[in-house]
Amino acid sequence: MPVVRAKREVSTAALPGVRKSAAETPLSEGAGRQPYVEEALGKIGDAVGQQGAALYAREMQKERALADQTALLEVSNRISDWKNKRLYDSAAGAFALKGKAALPLPEDIRAEFGTLTGDLGKTMVTAEQKLAFGKLVSQEWDSIDLQVRRHVFGEMQTYRATEVEGAVKNGVSEAQAAYLDPTLVNVALTKATSTIETMGPSLGWGEQQIKDKVRETQSATHVGVIYNLLAAEKDQQAADRL
Known about the structure:
Distance between the termini: 192 Å
Number of helices: 6
Number of domains: 2
Order of helices and strands: HHHHHH
Number of strands: 0
Structural class: mainly alpha
């Protein structure tokens, strides 16, 4: 029986309706994507701009703070210069004044400091500068006023003590010079001892110290009177004083 063999033929013709590659579309070509890209770039730009603005604001804030500190430092230096000349100068400063010459200092220094700080205050521009300047002035004045009053107190104590000592010595001398008149002796001696009793407490003398000084004054007066009587050959009167 004859064998029938089938022969398979393969065609190389393109299949109908089949494309070799995908066709470009408006979307694949970028149509419609531009707004999204621009939006994304805009957001990035905004973020960068905000960061830059924030950085600039911080830097400006630092600069303003430094400017305020520098302005305060300038007026502080001006006050220090004034203090060094007005208070501490060894020849013409306030603390070079002695005795009763120092008495007007508290009022004089207050007025001069007020004038100085009033002028300096006009150079303060910002609210921060004005606030800091106010604190600086308050602190400086508290320090200055305390120093001035201490100086004046010390000088007045020295002045007072000198005058008390002079008054007592003068009283003793007057009593000794009046040795021939017991009444005048007692008047002069009483003036001297009253000065001690009256002024002693203001000099910080305690009760016992005052009593001791009164006795010393009385003793010095009586010794001087007797010596003068004996020198004048008033032996009996001298004996009566013993």
